[in-house]
Description:
The protein is α+β, with helices and mostly antiparallel strands and about 300 residues long. The chain contains six helices and seven strands, in the order αββαααααβββββ.
Amino acid sequence: MKKEINYKKIAKWLAVIACIVVVVLVISYAYPTVLADVGNNNRYENNSSSSSGDDGWIWFFIHLLFDLLGFWGAAILIAILAVIYFILKKTGKLHIITDKFKKTKQNVAVGATPSIDNTVAVGEAIRLIDPAFSQDAFIGWVREVFIKIQQAWSSRDWRVIRPFESNELFTQHTAQLQEFINNNKINMIEKIAIQSCTLREFRQEGDKEVIVVELQAVMRDYVIDATTRAVLESDPNKDWHMRYLMTFNRKAGIKTNPGTSNKSTTNCPNCGAPTQITSSGQCEYCSSVITTGEHDWVLSDIRSIQ
Protein backbone atom coordinates (compact mmCIF):
# COMPACT_ATOMS: atom_id res chain seq x y z
CA MET A 1 0.00 0.00 0.00
CA LYS A 2 1.34 3.39 -0.96
CA LYS A 3 2.13 5.47 2.08
CA GLU A 4 0.29 8.78 2.20
CA ILE A 5 2.50 11.83 2.33
CA ASN A 6 2.16 13.65 5.64
CA TYR A 7 2.18 17.23 4.43
CA LYS A 8 1.59 18.64 7.90
CA LYS A 9 4.68 16.92 9.30
CA ILE A 10 6.82 18.10 6.39
CA ALA A 11 5.59 21.66 6.84
CA LYS A 12 6.26 21.48 10.57
CA TRP A 13 9.91 20.43 10.15
CA LEU A 14 10.56 22.86 7.33
CA ALA A 15 9.10 25.64 9.45
CA VAL A 16 11.35 24.67 12.35
CA ILE A 17 14.42 24.74 10.09
CA ALA A 18 13.45 28.08 8.59
CA CYS A 19 12.81 29.60 12.03
CA ILE A 20 16.19 28.42 13.32
CA VAL A 21 17.95 29.97 10.35
CA VAL A 22 16.09 33.26 10.73
CA VAL A 23 16.78 33.45 14.49
CA VAL A 24 20.48 32.78 13.93
CA LEU A 25 20.59 35.52 11.30
CA VAL A 26 18.95 38.06 13.56
CA ILE A 27 21.14 37.24 16.56
CA SER A 28 24.44 37.02 14.70
CA TYR A 29 24.09 40.01 12.44
CA ALA A 30 23.69 43.64 13.43
CA TYR A 31 22.19 45.29 10.39
CA PRO A 32 23.69 48.79 9.94
CA THR A 33 21.47 51.68 10.99
CA VAL A 34 21.82 55.42 10.72
CA LEU A 35 20.95 57.40 13.82
CA ALA A 36 19.46 60.86 13.65
CA ASP A 37 16.84 63.12 15.24
CA VAL A 38 17.43 64.83 18.61
CA GLY A 39 19.59 62.55 20.70
CA ASN A 40 19.93 60.12 17.78
CA ASN A 41 16.41 58.82 18.31
CA ASN A 42 15.33 58.11 14.74
CA ARG A 43 16.66 54.89 13.20
CA TYR A 44 15.97 55.52 9.53
CA GLU A 45 16.20 51.99 8.15
CA ASN A 46 14.43 50.27 11.03
CA ASN A 47 11.68 52.71 11.97
CA SER A 48 8.42 50.85 11.41
CA SER A 49 6.41 54.07 11.62
CA SER A 50 7.68 55.34 8.30
CA SER A 51 5.56 55.26 5.16
CA SER A 52 7.38 52.34 3.55
CA GLY A 53 4.64 49.78 4.27
CA ASP A 54 4.82 45.96 4.48
CA ASP A 55 6.66 45.60 1.15
CA GLY A 56 9.65 47.44 2.62
CA TRP A 57 10.08 44.74 5.25
CA ILE A 58 9.85 41.98 2.66
CA TRP A 59 12.58 43.49 0.50
CA PHE A 60 14.68 44.24 3.59
CA PHE A 61 14.46 40.56 4.58
CA ILE A 62 15.35 39.34 1.06
CA HIS A 63 18.37 41.64 0.85
CA LEU A 64 19.48 40.52 4.30
CA LEU A 65 19.32 36.87 3.26
CA PHE A 66 21.38 37.42 0.11
CA ASP A 67 23.94 39.52 2.01
CA LEU A 68 24.47 36.85 4.68
CA LEU A 69 23.91 33.56 2.86
CA GLY A 70 24.97 34.35 -0.65
CA PHE A 71 22.86 33.57 -3.71
CA TRP A 72 22.44 29.80 -3.24
CA GLY A 73 21.98 29.92 0.52
CA ALA A 74 19.29 32.57 0.25
CA ALA A 75 17.66 30.75 -2.68
CA ILE A 76 17.45 27.50 -0.66
CA LEU A 77 15.90 29.22 2.35
CA ILE A 78 13.38 31.06 0.18
CA ALA A 79 12.54 27.74 -1.50
CA ILE A 80 11.91 26.17 1.90
CA LEU A 81 9.59 29.03 2.84
CA ALA A 82 7.80 28.66 -0.51
CA VAL A 83 7.29 24.91 0.11
CA ILE A 84 5.85 25.66 3.55
CA TYR A 85 3.50 28.17 1.98
CA PHE A 86 2.17 25.75 -0.65
CA ILE A 87 1.82 22.89 1.86
CA LEU A 88 -0.16 25.10 4.23
CA LYS A 89 -2.30 26.24 1.33
CA LYS A 90 -2.87 22.66 0.15
CA THR A 91 -3.86 21.47 3.62
CA GLY A 92 -6.18 24.43 4.17
CA LYS A 93 -4.18 25.81 7.11
CA LEU A 94 -2.89 28.96 5.47
CA HIS A 95 -5.97 31.05 6.21
CA ILE A 96 -5.68 30.29 9.94
CA ILE A 97 -2.18 31.77 10.07
CA THR A 98 -3.02 34.80 7.92
CA ASP A 99 -6.15 35.54 9.96
CA LYS A 100 -4.15 35.43 13.21
CA PHE A 101 -1.47 37.66 11.71
CA LYS A 102 -4.00 40.23 10.55
CA LYS A 103 -5.68 40.23 13.95
CA THR A 104 -2.37 40.70 15.74
CA LYS A 105 -1.33 43.47 13.37
CA GLN A 106 -4.61 45.29 13.94
CA ASN A 107 -4.26 45.12 17.70
CA VAL A 108 -0.63 46.14 18.22
CA ALA A 109 2.67 45.57 16.46
CA VAL A 110 4.98 42.97 17.98
CA GLY A 111 7.23 44.61 20.56
CA ALA A 112 5.35 47.93 20.42
CA THR A 113 4.81 49.98 23.56
CA PRO A 114 1.06 50.56 23.96
CA SER A 115 -0.15 54.14 24.17
CA ILE A 116 -1.31 55.11 27.64
CA ASP A 117 -3.31 58.26 28.37
CA ASN A 118 -3.50 58.95 32.09
CA THR A 119 -3.64 62.72 31.70
CA VAL A 120 -6.63 63.31 33.96
CA ALA A 121 -5.47 60.88 36.65
CA VAL A 122 -1.94 62.29 36.65
CA GLY A 123 -3.27 65.84 36.92
CA GLU A 124 -5.45 64.90 39.88
CA ALA A 125 -2.58 63.09 41.62
CA ILE A 126 -0.27 66.10 41.29
CA ARG A 127 -2.93 68.56 42.49
CA LEU A 128 -3.16 66.64 45.76
CA ILE A 129 0.29 68.02 46.61
CA ASP A 130 0.37 70.99 44.20
CA PRO A 131 -3.13 72.53 43.88
CA ALA A 132 -2.12 75.07 41.20
CA PHE A 133 -0.85 72.43 38.75
CA SER A 134 -2.63 72.42 35.38
CA GLN A 135 -2.16 69.48 33.03
CA ASP A 136 -3.25 71.62 30.09
CA ALA A 137 -0.64 74.30 30.80
CA PHE A 138 2.03 71.66 31.38
CA ILE A 139 1.22 69.82 28.13
CA GLY A 140 1.30 73.11 26.21
CA TRP A 141 4.75 73.80 27.64
CA VAL A 142 5.96 70.28 26.78
CA ARG A 143 4.84 70.73 23.18
CA GLU A 144 6.73 74.04 23.00
CA VAL A 145 9.87 72.49 24.47
CA PHE A 146 9.72 69.59 21.99
CA ILE A 147 9.50 71.97 19.02
CA LYS A 148 12.37 74.07 20.36
CA ILE A 149 14.73 71.14 20.86
CA GLN A 150 14.07 69.87 17.33
CA GLN A 151 14.73 73.32 15.88
CA ALA A 152 17.88 73.76 17.98
CA TRP A 153 19.14 70.37 16.80
CA SER A 154 18.79 71.41 13.15
CA SER A 155 20.31 74.85 13.72
CA ARG A 156 23.17 73.18 15.64
CA ASP A 157 22.86 75.69 18.49
CA TRP A 158 22.12 73.74 21.64
CA ARG A 159 22.63 76.72 23.98
CA VAL A 160 18.99 77.78 23.68
CA ILE A 161 17.96 74.43 25.18
CA ARG A 162 20.07 74.88 28.32
CA PRO A 163 17.18 76.02 30.59
CA PHE A 164 14.99 73.05 29.79
CA GLU A 165 17.26 70.02 30.15
CA SER A 166 18.94 68.45 33.14
CA ASN A 167 22.73 68.77 33.34
CA GLU A 168 23.22 65.13 32.34
CA LEU A 169 20.88 65.23 29.33
CA PHE A 170 22.26 68.56 28.13
CA THR A 171 25.81 67.19 28.26
CA GLN A 172 24.76 64.05 26.38
CA HIS A 173 22.91 65.92 23.63
CA THR A 174 25.71 68.47 23.27
CA ALA A 175 28.23 65.68 22.67
CA GLN A 176 25.95 63.98 20.13
CA LEU A 177 25.36 67.24 18.27
CA GLN A 178 29.09 67.96 18.28
CA GLU A 179 29.64 64.64 16.51
CA PHE A 180 27.42 65.82 13.66
CA ILE A 181 29.35 69.10 13.52
CA ASN A 182 32.70 67.30 13.49
CA ASN A 183 31.48 65.16 10.59
CA ASN A 184 30.28 68.25 8.70
CA LYS A 185 26.69 67.03 8.79
CA ILE A 186 23.39 68.69 9.61
CA ASN A 187 20.36 66.71 10.73
CA MET A 188 17.40 68.58 9.26
CA ILE A 189 14.13 68.30 11.20
CA GLU A 190 11.32 70.04 9.33
CA LYS A 191 7.54 70.27 9.05
CA ILE A 192 7.02 69.14 12.65
CA ALA A 193 3.41 68.42 13.51
CA ILE A 194 2.57 67.20 17.01
CA GLN A 195 -0.36 64.82 16.80
CA SER A 196 -0.87 64.12 20.51
CA CYS A 197 0.72 64.77 23.87
CA THR A 198 -0.52 62.91 26.95
CA LEU A 199 0.60 62.28 30.51
CA ARG A 200 1.38 58.61 31.18
CA GLU A 201 2.70 58.53 34.72
CA PHE A 202 3.47 60.54 37.85
CA ARG A 203 5.66 59.20 40.63
CA GLN A 204 7.85 60.34 43.48
CA GLU A 205 11.42 59.07 43.66
CA GLY A 206 13.19 60.08 46.85
CA ASP A 207 13.63 63.84 46.76
CA LYS A 208 12.23 64.35 43.27
CA GLU A 209 8.94 64.15 41.41
CA VAL A 210 8.70 62.60 37.95
CA ILE A 211 6.23 63.01 35.09
CA VAL A 212 6.41 60.73 32.04
CA VAL A 213 4.86 62.16 28.86
CA GLU A 214 4.03 60.40 25.61
CA LEU A 215 4.26 62.59 22.51
CA GLN A 216 3.45 61.59 18.94
CA ALA A 217 4.64 63.70 16.04
CA VAL A 218 5.12 63.68 12.26
CA MET A 219 8.20 65.28 10.77
CA ARG A 220 10.67 65.34 7.90
CA ASP A 221 13.99 63.97 9.15
CA TYR A 222 17.10 63.72 6.97
CA VAL A 223 20.84 64.46 7.02
CA ILE A 224 22.69 66.80 4.67
CA ASP A 225 26.30 67.79 4.04
CA ALA A 226 26.91 71.11 5.81
CA THR A 227 28.99 72.45 2.91
CA THR A 228 27.31 71.19 -0.23
CA ARG A 229 23.79 70.78 1.27
CA ALA A 230 23.58 67.45 -0.53
CA VAL A 231 21.28 64.89 1.09
CA LEU A 232 23.33 62.12 2.70
CA GLU A 233 20.74 60.06 4.56
CA SER A 234 16.97 59.54 4.49
CA ASP A 235 14.52 61.36 2.19
CA PRO A 236 13.61 65.08 2.51
CA ASN A 237 10.12 64.31 1.18
CA LYS A 238 9.36 61.43 3.53
CA ASP A 239 7.19 61.81 6.62
CA TRP A 240 8.33 60.03 9.77
CA HIS A 241 5.69 59.12 12.36
CA MET A 242 7.48 59.13 15.70
CA ARG A 243 6.50 58.33 19.29
CA TYR A 244 8.51 59.59 22.23
CA LEU A 245 8.61 59.13 25.98
CA MET A 246 9.74 62.36 27.65
CA THR A 247 10.62 62.32 31.33
CA PHE A 248 10.51 65.50 33.42
CA ASN A 249 11.84 65.95 36.97
CA ARG A 250 11.54 68.57 39.65
CA LYS A 251 12.52 68.72 43.32
CA ALA A 252 9.90 67.25 45.64
CA GLY A 253 7.86 69.94 47.35
CA ILE A 254 8.16 72.53 44.58
CA LYS A 255 4.82 74.19 43.86
CA THR A 256 3.49 75.52 40.58
CA ASN A 257 3.76 79.30 40.28
CA PRO A 258 0.91 80.42 38.01
CA GLY A 259 2.93 83.50 37.07
CA THR A 260 6.01 81.67 35.77
CA SER A 261 5.56 77.89 35.70
CA ASN A 262 4.96 76.33 32.29
CA LYS A 263 4.14 79.72 30.80
CA SER A 264 7.16 80.52 28.69
CA THR A 265 10.38 78.94 27.56
CA THR A 266 12.20 82.27 27.55
CA ASN A 267 12.18 83.38 31.19
CA CYS A 268 14.05 82.26 34.30
CA PRO A 269 11.61 80.41 36.58
CA ASN A 270 13.32 81.93 39.62
CA CYS A 271 13.52 85.66 38.85
CA GLY A 272 11.41 85.93 35.67
CA ALA A 273 14.17 87.63 33.69
CA PRO A 274 14.72 86.77 30.01
CA THR A 275 16.61 83.51 30.03
CA GLN A 276 20.34 83.83 29.53
CA ILE A 277 21.77 80.60 30.88
CA THR A 278 25.47 79.96 31.38
CA SER A 279 27.10 76.64 30.53
CA SER A 280 26.80 75.67 34.19
CA GLY A 281 23.02 76.13 34.07
CA GLN A 282 22.93 79.42 35.97
CA CYS A 283 20.73 82.43 35.24
CA GLU A 284 23.01 85.37 34.37
CA TYR A 285 20.71 87.75 36.22
CA CYS A 286 20.10 86.05 39.58
CA SER A 287 22.83 83.34 39.45
CA SER A 288 20.24 80.73 40.34
CA VAL A 289 20.93 77.24 39.00
CA ILE A 290 17.72 76.48 37.16
CA THR A 291 18.53 73.28 35.30
CA THR A 292 18.29 70.81 38.17
CA GLY A 293 14.55 70.92 38.86
CA GLU A 294 15.05 73.18 41.88
CA HIS A 295 12.50 75.71 40.57
CA ASP A 296 10.47 73.96 37.91
CA TRP A 297 10.29 70.89 35.70
CA VAL A 298 13.30 69.99 33.54
CA LEU A 299 13.58 67.38 30.81
CA SER A 300 15.77 64.52 32.04
CA ASP A 301 15.21 61.98 29.27
CA ILE A 302 13.72 61.67 25.78
CA ARG A 303 13.65 58.48 23.75
CA SER A 304 11.71 57.15 20.80
CA ILE A 305 9.47 54.10 21.16
CA GLN A 306 7.72 51.85 18.67
